[in-house]
Each structure stands twice: as structure tokens, then as C-alpha cells.
Amino acid sequence: MYTTKDGEEIFIIDGHVHLWDASPANQRNVHGAEFINCFYGYHSALSPKEEVWPREKFEKYGAETMYEDLFVKGYDDMAIFQPTYLKEFYKNGFNTLEQNASLGTRYPDRFIINGAFDPRHGEAGLDQLQSDVEQYKIKGVKLYTAEWIGDSKGYKLSDDHAKRYLERAEKLGIKNIHVHKGPTILPLNRDAFDVADIDDAATCFPNLNFIVEHCGLPRLDDFCWIAVQEPNVYGGLAVALPFIHSRPAYFAHIISELLFWLGEDRILFGSDYGIWTPKWLVDAFMNFELPDEVRKETKVDLSLTAKKKILGLNAARIYNIDIEAKKAALGYRQSVAAE
Predict the structure, then answer these.
(1) What percent of the residues of the chain are helix, what percent strand, and what percent coil, each to the nearest 5?
(2) What is the tens place of the pLDDT at every residue in 202-222?
(3) Residue 244 near residue 288 (C-beta atoms within 8 A)
(4) pLDDT of residue 182
(5) Is the separation of the CB atoms in 119 and 165 below 8 Å?
(6) Cα–chain-centroid distance for residue 237?
(7) CB atoms within 10 A of CB 151
(8) pLDDT of 125-158, one tens digit each?
(9) Is the preceding omega at residue 48 within 30 degrees of 0, hence cis?
(10) What's the rounded Cα separation, in Å, for the pair 25 and 269?
């Protein structure tokens, strides 16, 4: 929970976190090393110097460190696991549903456990999706359209086989479709992360929410022009938000464009843990104000109301989270009474 200088409490839902194992022991080939090295490049380039981790810790930080960083040192009240399998690169997978559930099931009031699917897995993948819903009660999935499987280096959500999976997801009660659309990661292909296929998918499935993680960067304009026409498309701030430290003018451009095109009700906070930790991100975000020239140009403002929506209220709405009930479950009311 973040508390403002005026004593107002803000419930934080971190919409994008991972529990990964990228250690050399789990790397299947050189691509496993390339992938985590690229992540570490993002981490070390965009984090404040005091927040940069040793490489060994970054490769495998473990469940206890994650809990501490999110909920003890950090302001997160809840967090949403977003799996990324990458079994072509990692022997046991990079960040799987099963790995995430090992921590998430221990703290069910803290974590939302999302699943994943890949339409190239055919009928077996559809059966697995149903099994994951039954076992983990997942309400959302994370899709990684640039993942490699055999000779295939990606797929599009506008493909017929992808639409079969989206149809099944909707029938199974999965409402929220998180999609990595944005920065490429070595050795994956840039064009396989292109945001363009969101347009057709969002039109074909108006009852699903498409949360475009990383806002389509560097194709921000493409994303915004799609999202303004599709009311079920949201922007996830993972990767975009850390620019608030090293490139504040660039972040001001990103967030002002999102506010102008999508509005404050369709933007979600995500730390992308463990690339970044939520404490410094939330502190920086709460202290951030749009420059006057940006406000004049776009006619938008990053008000306290907007910040509260972005940091938690928007995610609570699309995941049907009763924040007051969740506060009670987490013991917040008892703590206040004890004081």
C-alpha cells in the first residue's frame, strides 16, 4: 500500500510479474544466455544505479526474494503472474505457470495466477488450457507471439488457429488476454512482436480484454491508433515506466499519448519484476508530473485520480477484485484497529 503525504492510501496491483529461472544450469543452449543477457541489459540500463542487481541474482532470485521485493520492501498489495515458457531456450522453461503457482498458491490473496497458450500446440494445447483452468482457476493468459517452436518463429493473433484458442478461452471464462507487443529480445524477431494483429483480434472478440504489455513500444503510434478504436484494448506500462528515471521526457511523451488516446481508465501499472522492482517505480511515478508544454499540447494531466486508477483500480475492475474485501483479507483493517 502506498500512502501519500496527505495520508491517502493507494491500493497497488502490479499487473506484470515473473518468477524465472534463467540460471546457466537451466539454459538449454546459447539462446537461453542471449535472452537473459538482453533482459539484464534492460535492467542495468534503465534502473537507478543503487537498484542494479548482481548478474547471478538476476538470473535466479527465488520465491522468497520476490515476495520480499513486492510486498515487504515494495508497495504492491497484489501482483499478477504472467508466464513465459521459452522451452526451446530453457530446459525446464523460463517462467512457467507451474513455477509461478508454487509461490502463488501459498499466498492466494496476494497473487493472481495467469496461464498461457500457444496455438501451434493444436488440440493438445486446447486440452492443456482447459486443464489449467480447472486446476489453477486462471482468469487471464499471457501470450508471447514471438516464441520459437521448432522451425516456427512466431504467430499472429489474426491467424485462424489463434482464433480457435481465443474462442476456447472465452468459453472457459478467461477474460483477460495479456500480449507481449513491444520491445524485441535477443534472439526473438522484432516483427513477431508487432502490435498490428491486436486490431483484428480485439474486433473479433469484443468480450475479451486485450492488455497490450509494453504499449507496443517502439510502435507507440500504431498501438494508440488501434486502441482508440477498440474499447477492449488496454495499455500495460511494463518496460515503458522505467524510462521515468533515465529518460523522463520520453516517459512524459509515452504516458501523455496513452492518456490522450486511451484515457486514464485503460492503462495498467506493471513492474515487470524481476527486471525492475516496484518500490522505486511507484515512488517515481507518484512524484512525476507532466511538463507544462506537454499538458498544453495534449490537454491531459497525470492527476492523482489518474495515478490511482493506473496503479490499481483499473486492474481491480477487469479482474473483478473487491479492494475493500481484499484489504480485509490481507489484515489491513486489523492493523489499523491495533494501532
Answers:
(1) 50, 15, 40
(2) 999 999 999 999 999 999 999
(3) yes
(4) 85
(5) yes
(6) 7
(7) 5
(8) 999 999 999 999 999 999 999 999 999 999 999 9
(9) no
(10) 32
Q: Which three cell numbers stand for residue 40?
A: 539484464
Report whether 202 contacts 232 (CB < 8 A).
Answer: yes
> In what side-by-side order are the strands of the sheet with 78-81?
13-17, 78-81, 111-113
How far CA 51 is from CA of 133, 252, 293, in Å, comes to 36, 22, 31
Which amino acid, one-letter code, is at 19?
L
Residue bearing cell 508454487: 102
- Cα dihedral value 6, 276, 310, 176, nearest 10: -150
List the one residue out of 68, 52, 58, 19 whose CA is nearest residue 37.
58
Per the DSSP assignment, residues forming a β-bridge with 180 are: 213
Phi, psi of 229, rounded to the nearest 5 degrees: -95, -15
DSSP per residue, 168-216: HHHHTT--EEEEE-S---TTS-GGGG-TTHHHHHHHH-TTSEEEEEGGG
Other Cβ atoms less than 10 A from the Cβ of 175: the count is 17
Residues of the chain with pLDDT under 70: 333-339
Measured CA to CA, the distance from residue 301 to residue 259 in angstroms comes to 8
By three-state DSSP, how is residue 300 classified?
Answer: coil
Q: Locate cell 507451474: which residue?
A: 98
C-alpha–C-alpha distance, residues 222 and 182, integer Å: 11
**Cβ(114)–Cβ(82) under 8 Å?**
yes
Task: Tell me if 76 sits within 8 A of 70, measured CB to CB.
Answer: yes
Q: For residues 288 and 311, is the Cβ–Cβ distance under 8 A?
A: no
Q: What is the pTM of this model?
A: 0.96
How many residues are there in the chain? 339
For residue 317, what are the CA distances in angstroms to 81, 309, 321? 17, 10, 6
